[in-house]
Amino acid sequence: MTGLEHTAIGMLAAASLIGVASWIGKRWGPGASGWFVALPLISGPVMLTFALERGPQFARQACLGAMLAIISLSVFALAYSWCARRAGWVMSATLACILFLVSTWALQLFRAPPIGWTFVLACVVLACALYAMPAGTTRRASATTAWDLPVRMILAAALVFALSSASAYFGPRVSGLLTPFPITSTILVSFTHHNEGAAATSQFLLGLLKGLFSFAVFVLVAGVAIGSWPIAATFIAAAIVTLVFHAGVWQWVQHHEAASGAPRASVAHD
Predict the structure, then answer these.
(1) How far apart are alpha carbons 71 and 63 in whole angstroms?
(2) Rounded CA gap, 24 and 265, in Å?
(3) Helix extents (H) in 56-147
(4) What is the pLDDT averaged over residues 24-50?
(5) Which distant-in-sequence residues (6+ apart) come within 8 Å of 70 by Cβ?
(6) E strand or H helix at 268, and its extent?
(7) Measuring CA to CA, which residue among 186, 180, 184 is closest to residue 153?
(8) Contacts of 262 (CB under 8 A, 6+ apart)
(9) Do 217 and 241 form a contact (C-beta atoms < 8 A)?
(10) I need a surface site. Which of 79, 97, 214, 232 has the fewest CB within 10 A?
């Protein structure tokens, strides 16, 4: 397939992901939506494209960059959550994306250790980010409109096109760092913030941070196996391990919350 066809598939995947994640958010709440979008449903195919078009060595370096990008995603989640307590969605999203890019720029200067140690570093950062998230507050009722979902999907497709076009100018490390750029997360969290308030925003981002452990597992398996295994086997194995781990994390979180008696966010109707 040509690069344009790959971009078109990525745009369709992003729009579809937004649709499914929005439905999950309405059905099970913003935390479940955040947990879902942490899956490498866009970045995984992008890394597969790197391996097919530019070779295993490029893809291996991109995996290393993607693992480091978890640090930037943690910065994004923390910045948005704390800013949302005092500011609206425009300022919160702008600040969070700027800090994501600043963190990404700093990390591309960082000489990363082998992917196994980078995985450990990413998991430690995620754990610290979860601890540093603001406490939940009362959540207000959702105020969605008929045009809400189509706008989300169009924005996702447009952002994928912009990033895909820009990636042609970057090397493997920067491409990997930008692969998990929070396209879907930015759109979903902004609409959640606008429609449901800061409490629902924090729930979404907490779900995202918990789900990013699964993203780290995907990148670890792909980064270790690529070059040694056939490309198809590498990404099939990474996908299977990730889905099993992701489902296990969800079950553990649900069991832990039920056992600890953690109160679920209440919804305040206007």
Answers:
(1) 14
(2) 17
(3) 56-84, 89-107, 115-132
(4) 82
(5) 122, 125, 126, 180, 212, 215, 216
(6) strand 267-268
(7) 184
(8) 256
(9) yes
(10) 232
Asked if 241 contacts 221 with a C-beta cutoff of 8 angstroms, the reply is: yes
Q: Of 225, 265, 217, 264, whose CA–CA distance to 244 is shortest?
A: 217
- 3-state DSSP assignment of residue 139: strand
Are the C-beta atoms of 224 and 196 separated by less than 8 Å?
A: no
Q: Name the nearest CA neighbour of 124 among 178, 70, 78, 44.
A: 70
Q: Which has the closest alpha carbon to 196: 22, 16, 19? A: 22
| Residue 226 β-bridge partners | 229
Residue type at position 41: L
Q: How many other C-beta atoms lie within 10 A of the C-beta of residue 149?
A: 17
* Type of residue found at 66: A
User: Are 51 and 232 a contacting pair, CB within 8 Å?
Assistant: no
User: Quick check: 11 and 162 in contact, CB under 8 A?
Assistant: no
Per the document, the length of the chain is: 270
Question: What is the per-residue pLDDT across 183-215, written as a single tens digit (0 to 9) for each?
Answer: 778 888 988 898 888 889 999 999 999 999 999
Paired tokens of 132: 């540093």
Q: What is the pTM of this model?
A: 0.81
pLDDT in tens, 82-112: 999 999 999 999 999 999 989 988 988 888 8
Helix, strand, coil in percent for the chain, rounding step 5: 80, 0, 20
